[in-house]
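User: quick one, sequence for these tokens?
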């Protein structure tokens, strides 16, 4: 009777360890998703800043090219 009880206890312990690891993975995935969201927002802001800066530069370049012709 000892061996079957040991097998059940070890099986339960194995499932408990897998559950703890699954919770840790879930927490890390959520943290990574937040970081990806933050990085995406920063990239979007940088893209908007670059577009805003490029418009006057392109207009100035167009004026210079028009003056040369």
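Assistant:
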């Amino acid at each position: 009777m000892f061996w079957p009880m040991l097998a059940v206890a070890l099986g339960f312990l194995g499932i408990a360890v897998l559950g703890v690891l699954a919770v840790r993975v879930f927490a890390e995935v959520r943290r990574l998703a937040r970081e990806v969201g933050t990085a995406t927002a920063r990239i979007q802001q940088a893209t908007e800043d670059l577009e805003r800066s490029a418009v006057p530069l392109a207009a100035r370049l167009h004026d210079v090219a028009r003056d040369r012709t």
